[in-house]
Amino acid sequence: MHIQLLKSKIHRVKITQAELHYVGSITIDEDLMDAANIIANEKVQIVNINNGERLETYVIKGERGSGQVCLNGPAARKAQVGDIVIVISYASMEFEEAKVYKPIVIFPDEQNRLI
C-alpha cells in the first residue's frame, strides 16, 4: 500500500512577483529549492497565509540567491506581491517507509533567504 505524505516544505516565504501573462507555475530561487529538496517541474501545493487560497502547480528554477518567489499564469490571481505562502511537496511511499521518513522543512527569513 502506498500513502501520500509531506516530503518537503518551504514555510512562510514571501511572494516577490506575480506574472499573469506567463505559461503558468511558480518560480522559486534555486537555493530555496535545493534546501527544501524540491526539483524543477515537481508538483507543489501553494497555501496562501494572507487569503487562505490553495492551489497546485509545478516549480520552475529561479535565479540562485535572488530570493525570487513568483506565481505565474492563472496562479498569479491567487496571491499578491508581499503575501506569505507555504510551498508543500508530497511523496508517495510504502506504508512502512512512510512511518520513518523525515520531511525537510525550511524557514526562510523575511527576504526569502536561508537562515
TrEMBL record:
* E.C. no: 4.1.1.11
- Cofactor(s) required, per the database record: pyruvate
Q: Where is this chain's protein located in or outside the cell? A: Cytoplasm
InterPro entries recorded = Asp_de-COase-like_dom_sf, Asp_decarbox
Modifications made to the protein after synthesis: Is synthesized initially as an inactive proenzyme, which is activated by self-cleavage at a specific serine bond to produce a beta-subunit with a hydroxyl group at its C-terminus and an alpha-subunit with a pyruvoyl group at its N-terminus.
Listed Gene3D superfamilies: 2.40.40.20
Which reaction(s) does its UniProt entry say it catalyses?
A: L-aspartate + H(+) = beta-alanine + CO2
Is Lyase a UniProt keyword of this protein?
A: yes
Quaternary organization: Heterooctamer of four alpha and four beta subunits.
HAMAP family referenced in this protein's UniProt entry, alphabetically: PanD (MF_00446)
* The name this protein goes by in its record: Aspartate 1-decarboxylase
Which species is this UniProt entry from?
Answer: Cyclobacterium jeungdonense
Species lineage: Bacteria, Pseudomonadati, Bacteroidota, Cytophagia, Cytophagales
Gene of this entry = panD
